[in-house]
Specification:
Blueprint: E1 4-7, E2 10-13, E3 18-24, E4 32-39, E5 46-51, E6 58-60, E7 68-73, E8 78-83, E9 92-102, E10 114-117, E11 121-126
């Protein structure tokens, strides 16, 4: 069983930065692409960013391009989301997730492509 645990959320003013971390249990973290999603109150869960198993490919939703950076450290079983220039519209619960397919070079942006999810971490950006 895989467990994903997010951390790093909090309250920040607009223009500030946060770094989210997601640490996975188990020995096979390094062969799976990982993604970050977010869900604001009253809205559907949406894709934010993803990184392939080898870090060769990354993908971002247009609204965070140039502000967010996804990265991973396979030795630590951890994926990160560096969030800069935060805006009030970035306020949401942020979830990390593991792609259901191993050794996938492409990155996926649909929730059905991911099989394990963390419990989420709250990010609140004040104006």
């Amino acid at each position: 069983q895989v467990q994903l645990v997010e951390s790093g959320g909090g309250l920040v003013q607009a223009g500030g930065s946060l770094r989210l971390s997601c640490t996975a249990s188990g020995r096979s973290f390094s062969i799976y692409s990982m993604g970050w999603f977010r869900q604001a109150p009253g809205k559907e869960r949406e894709f934010v960013a993803a990184i392939s198993w080898s870090s060769s490919n990354t993908n971002y939703v247009d609204s965070v391009k140039g502000r967010f950076t996804i990265s991973r450290d396979n030795a630590k079983n951890t994926v990160y989301l560096q969030m800069n220039s935060l805006k009030p519209e970035d306020t949401a619960i942020y979830y990390c997730a593991r792609d259901r397919r191993a050794f996938r070079t492409l990155t996926d942006k649909w929730t059905d492509d991911y099989d394990y999810w963390g419990q989420g971490t709250q990010v609140t950006v004040s104006s």
